[in-house]
């Protein structure tokens, strides 16, 4: 079974990556999509988000549930097989490490498209994942 890792932060670019992964899953051989949300240490959680996890799964912190919910809806609608994961730490490092330990075949992730200068100055999770991962990384704009 082919395993695709799709990091989800709740953004539109992440949704585009999920749609791309779903298309690959439907068109190809048996595929499982691993949806991953990474929470950076010291990320504030608003009290109003406290009930978001009820809509997805009580296992996830509210901000993870909120970020994963649109991706879950897209994959359920497409009929794609998926699993959900919430990690804690530096996003690029956690994504690359999860891909290794889970035996993923590829990473499909969105990019916010800030441009080369902004990425140079502030960095980009996508750029860091490309550097850290030892499997193919597809960036969806």
From TrEMBL:
It comes from the Bacteria. Pfam families: Usp. InterPro entries: Rossmann-like_a/b/a_fold (IPR014729), Universal_stress_UspA (IPR006015), UspA (IPR006016). SUPFAM superfamilies: Adenine nucleotide alpha hydrolases-like. Residues 1-141 form the UspA domain. Belongs to the universal stress protein A family. This is Universal stress protein. It comes from Massilia niabensis.
């Amino acid at each position: 079974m082919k395993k695709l890792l799709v990091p989800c932060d709740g953004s539109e670019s992440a949704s585009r990556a999920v749609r791309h992964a779903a298309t690959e899953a439907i068109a190809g051989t048996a595929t499982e999509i691993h949806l991953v949300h990474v929470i950076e240490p010291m990320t504030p959680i608003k009290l109003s988000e406290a009930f978001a996890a009820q809509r997805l799964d009580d296992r996830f912190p509210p901000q993870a549930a909120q970020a994963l919910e649109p991706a879950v809806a897209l994959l359920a609608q497409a009929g794609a097989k998926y699993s959900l994961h919430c990690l804690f730490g530096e996003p690029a490092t956690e994504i690359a490490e999860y891909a290794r330990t889970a035996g993923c075949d590829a990473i499909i992730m969105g990019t916010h498209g800030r441009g080369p200068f902004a990425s140079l100055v502030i960095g980009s999770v996508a750029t860091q994942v490309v550097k850290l991962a030892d499997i193919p990384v597809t960036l969806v704009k």
